[in-house]
Design goal:
Number of domains: 2
Low-confidence stretches: none
CATH topology of the largest domain: Rossmann fold
Helix content: 25-40%
Mean pLDDT: 95
Bound molecules: adenosine-5'-diphosphate
Radius of gyration: 23 Å
Strand content: 15-25%
Number of helices: 19
Distance between the termini: 22 Å
CATH architecture of the largest domain: 3-Layer(aba) Sandwich
Structural class: alpha/beta
Largest sheet: 9 strands, mixed
Length: about 500
């Protein structure tokens, strides 16, 4: 392993990858950050499970090797995505299922997910140890979320190993399994203890990353601080505090070419900060598409979200009910919990002139909402980073967000006396409660009526850069620290063994 260079070999392990397979923000990060790392000088290979959906979208992946893993044999194939090499870990548990990577069509988690992602994590470890016929030794194995959490734990069992970085995109999804299930996976007993994978008697995949990676980071500095508290730590705060300065936050970026109102092919009308008046054409198109009354002047609120309690959708529903006489429209696109879906349907039935909802995953409609809305609502209870506030800022759609995690790091309230005028870009509420959200929406409506000030808010967002280049250089600096930690470990262990 050559530790002197600064152009690192990076193996980037993830369970979702835009544009091939996406359930949320992790896919967008995986589809952007590796390319940005490459532009910053790193040599990157992405590794992802060979899901059916992925195999169907690529031409003839090249066979690389077979790996005889403790959990069974897999084949590793390779292809490329926007110039970055992608390794596919193929096995029937990935390639024989359609659709969502984690769930069946009836929204139930695949019962063998622990097996599937333990298998994937084992494959990543082997590739990380240069045992996959690639003649390529990563300096860094960069893992993401619980699906890859076992990899740093497994790698920790090898003295001579690459450095590891583990990124938390959402701490609430932990991959916790009963001890019996852990035993069935025949994972090493040496990893099952309070400072390792053990979590209240269960085994936790995410804890493998938190406990064993040389460096842990989350996708915003705000969330990195929050997860060390009992309120946001999801039971992992003790472990995270014990890692001290090895836990940090790096704010996500966005793919500014992919999300550009000037060129976005999904939009009825393209526009820029200088031609922002053209945005109205997208509003009219959205009202027509969502079957809302067409009205240029009525403030149009938009929301695109996983339908989950985390996202504060229940709060949004209550806030709308609390403002029957307020003049605005709301367009929502969401997929997720059936209870929230039926509550949203009821809301749209009750206020058909005001509220329109669509369910399912719909890239085209999501772009139309980003461009066509005036205000984008994100009343999240917690938000590791959030991407839609970036997309909204870029599309001149003023975000209304809760002061949590990455939202607090990126949206600056129009009424705040602490924020400089040229940084104000949205509306921030203190907490995801009905009262705060009603107040936030009312404030947004007042500001919307001050056309000159509103345009200034929109332009501030549109003119700020949120590119991955800044984040990529922060990741490279984090890799350097992880490599330093790993070298220290090796030399300390060697010294201890003398
Ligand atoms: P999370 O990863 O917690 O779901 P993020 O804000 O980080 O939230 O990322 C969500 C991503 O998924 C965004 O790109 C958003 O536009 C997209 N998205 C969420 N729900 C839908 C949907 N129903 N249809 C299309 N895109 C969606």
């Amino acid at each position: 392993m050559d530790m002197q260079k600064n152009q690192y070999n990076v193996l980037f392990a993830c369970s979702e990858l835009t544009p091939w397979v996406k359930t949320g923000g992790l896919a967008d990060v995986s589809g952007s950050l590796p390319h940005a790392l490459r532009r910053a000088g790193a040599e990157v290979k992405i590794v992802v499970p060979g899901y059916r959906a992925v195999l169907d979208q690529i031409d003839r992946p090249q066979y690389v090797c077979h790996l005889d893993l403790p959990l069974g044999p897999v084949a590793v194939c390779c292809t490329s995505l926007a110039g970055t090499e992608v390794l596919l870990v193929t096995h029937p548990v990935f390639s024989n299922r359609n659709g969502n990577p984690y769930m069946s069509d009836d929204d139930r988690a695949w019962p063998d997910n622990p097996y599937r992602f333990a298998l994937f994590s084992q494959a990543v470890s082997e590739i990380g140890l240069n045992r996959a016929n690639l003649d390529w030794q990563p300096d860094i194995v960069h893992c993401n979320d619980w699906q890859t959490g076992l990899t740093p734990a497994l790698l920790s069992l090898s003295h001579q190993r690459p450095a590891t970085v583990f990124t938390v995109h959402n701490l609430a999804y932990q991959g916790n399994i009963l001890y019996n299930a852990y035993k069935e996976l025949e994972l090493p007993d040496a990893l099952f203890h309070a400072d390792g994978l053990e979590f209240w008697g269960q085994a936790s995949f995410i804890k493998g990353g938190l406990a064993y990676a040389d460096r842990v980071n989350t996708v915003s500095p705000g969330y990195a601080n929050e997860i060390k508290t009992t309120e946001f730590g999801a039971g992992m705060e003790g472990m995270l505090n014990s890692r001290g300065e090895r836990v940090s936050g790096i704010l996500n970026g966005i793919d500014e070419e992919e999300w550009n109102p000037e060129t976005d092919p999904y939009l009825k009308q393209n526009y820029t900060a200088d031609s922002i008046d053209l945005k109205i054409e997208n509003k009219i198109a959205l009202q027509q598409r969502m079957k809302l009354p067409v009205d240029k002047d009525i403030p149009l609120l938009g929301s695109i979200s996983r339908l989950a309690i985390q996202k504060g959708i229940d709060v949004l529903i209550d806030a709308i009910k609390a403002m029957p006489d307020e003049r605005f429209q709301l367009a929502i696109l969401g997929a997720g919990e059936t209870d929230l879906q039926s509550q949203l349907s009821q809301l749209a039935d009750r206020y058909p002139e005001k509220v329109a909802v669509r369910f399912g995953y719909d890239e085209s409609l999501s772009r139309a909402i980003e461009a066509g809305s005036d205000i984008f609502v994100m009343p999240s209870r917690y938000e590791p980073c959030g991407l839609n506030q970036f997309y909204s800022l870029r599309y001149g759609t003023v975000p209304l967000v809760t002061r949590v995690g990455g939202l607090a790091d990126t949206v600056f309230d129009v009424d705040s006396s602490d924020t400089k005028k040229d940084q104000k870009n949205g509306i921030v509420i203190d907490a995801a409660t009905t009262e705060h959200l009603v107040d936030g929406i009312q404030r947004a409506l007042v500001h919307y009526n001050d056309k000159a000030q509103w345009k200034a808010l929109q332009r501030t967002g549109m003119r700020t850069s949120y590119s991955w280049n800044r984040s990529a250089s922060e990741y490279i600096a984090l890799y350097a620290k992880a490599i330093g930690d790993n070298l220290n470990r090796m030399s300390v262990t060697r010294y201890a063994n003398v």
